[in-house]
Amino acid sequence: MLENILPSEIYSVIADKLNLDKLCEIRLRVNKPIMVSVMGGVAYLSTDGITDKCVNSIICSKEQIEEVIYKASDFSLYAINGQIKQGFITVKGGMRIGLCGEIVEEQGVIKTLKNFTSINIRIPHSVQNCSLNALKFITENGFKNTLVISPPGAGKTTFLRDLAWQFSHHNYGYNLLIIDERAEIGAVSNGVPELDVGVFTDIYTNCSKYFGLVQGIRSMRPDIVMVDELATSDDVSAIMYAIGSGVKVIASAHAYGVYDLKVKKDFEDIFRKQMFSRFIVLSNRCGPGTYEGIFDQNLKCLYCP
Amino acid sequence: MQLFLIILIVGGISYVGYGLSSYYKKRYTLMSDILLFCDCLSNDIDFLHTPVKQILLNRNVQFAPELNKLLNQYKQILDNGKLLEFNQPISSIYFKREEAEMFMSLLYELGKSDSITQIATIKNFKTVFTKYHIEATEENKKYAPLALKLGVLIGILAGILLI
Fold first, then answer.
1. Which residues of B make CB contacts under 8 Å with A?
2. 8 Å CB contact between A160 and A250
3. What pTM was estimated for this model as a whole?
4. Cβ distance A177 to A224 under 8 Å?
5. Residue B60: per-residue pLDDT
6. Side by side, which strands form the sheet with A146-150?
7. CA distance B17 to A166
8. How do A224-230 and A176-180 pair as beta strands?
9. Is-contact A34 A58, C-beta < 8 A?
10. DSSP-assigned states of every residue in A208-270
């Protein structure tokens, strides 16, 4: 996957000197050192591998960033302008490239991004059984609406992916519908999920949460829906629609903990209406996916490692 | 033996004339196909947002071998995950230097912007290639039959002189 998008001079160093199974993230910034994140730890990339010294690091050029984006778009930026406008590109294999640059706006509407200044390549991994500890808290005495909370890069998507797989693996018989807005959970490419999300799972890719939920609940008759990264009040409304339709929901959101989420204005309804019965908090403390606690709807800690 | 040599010379010179005539015809065909290719690109990019590689793969119009050869070279580069570079030009003997550079520029710009910009860019290239097409059409009308006739005539003249 990486070999198809990275400039050969960068890829050769990464392939030769780094363990690709442990590589989580590559950050390229114009005229700045290339940085890599390996199992949560951040370091500079040098011709000898990773280093903590900035002076030895490989400096990224503007052309290299453009090359990555151009290759990631399969040599057709226009074909993925919808994603570019949202600030990311999803590449085959579920890799997500976050984009930063100059926004082209016309009458308040974002048309595209140009003059890219930095990109962030996130490499997905399947971590089998990473959600196993939480499974019984979600499923015992009936299925619970669950919100997975963590700061960025702490393993929310990996957790959701494994949870989807666990439902099938344990043969619960639930039909699970994933609204995979950025094609990250299932890494769907040409209609085929490249990462295992189980046999009871249907996936909507590259569609908004609201559209996916409304369309999916009508057409696919799911028992559970799974959505990644709730961010706005529209997303919360979409979840309310799903819960109101009698479907169970598993979602994730960015926050350091439950109380940090509670102070976000867009998320007030979640707590006021007790939309979720389980809150699973993850962190990066001992590497991505570290459990910080599992809470019930009254924010009582059920599992505090 | 002498007769055989004369026939060979007449045939050879006539063939040179035919070759020259064919050059102008193929040049004309290439220019016509490039205009058609620009239309295909505009349609596919505008309505379907089809990626460049897919457009090259599903070329719904069968172009003559001259353009097909160039497009296959371009597709090969993309399939290998490489970027098009000006120091490794994709060119044809039927192009003049300026036309070859323009064709390279067209391929170089493909896929590098949003669809509105792409359509505008392709339209600009089409305008330029329309000019080349008009030139090629005139050359084809003027020189293709002339070259063929001259080739045959010079061949026969050479034959007569040898006799």
1. 45, 49-53, 78, 81, 83, 110-115, 117-118
2. yes
3. 0.79
4. yes
5. 62
6. A201-205, A176-180, A224-230, A248-254, A146-150, A278-283, A290-296, A301-303
7. 76
8. parallel
9. yes
10. -HHHHHHHHHHHH--SEEEEEEE-SHHHHHHHHHHHHTT-EEEEEEE-SSHHHHHT-GGGHHH
Q: Which of B45, B52, B113 sits opposite A75 (nearest CB)?
A: B52
pLDDT of A102 > 90? The answer is yes
Contact indicator for A109, B85 with CB cutoff of 8 Å = no
Contact B81 A3 (CB under 8 A): yes
Mean pLDDT of B91-120: 92
Q: How many residues does chain B have?
A: 163
- Phi first, then psi: what are they for A221, rounded to 5°? 45, 65
Residue type present at position A234 = D
Q: What are phi and psi of A86, to 5 degrees?
A: -85, -5
Q: Which two tokens stand for residue B99?
A: 């036309």
Q: Which two tokens stand for residue B153?
A: 């005539």
pLDDT in tens, A177-194: 999 888 888 888 777 888
In the block, residue with structure tokens 């063939």: B15
To test the contact with chain B by mutation, choose from A1, A78, A89, A104 the residue with the greatest count of B C-beta atoms within 10 A, namely: A78
Token pair, residue A102, equals 């100059």
Question: What tokens appear for B64 in the block?
Answer: 């003559």
Is the pLDDT at A172 greater than 70? The verdict is: yes
Cβ–Cβ < 8 Å for A291, A282: yes
Domains of chain A in start order, with CATH, are 2-122 (3.30.450), 132-303 (3.40.50.300)
A36, A50 contact by CB (below 8 A): yes
Do A79 and B50 lie within an 8 Å CB cutoff? yes
Hey, how many other C-beta atoms are within 10 angstroms of the C-beta on A38?
Answer: 16
Which residue has better confidence, A24 or A68? Answer: A68
pLDDT at B25 exceeding the cut of 80:
yes
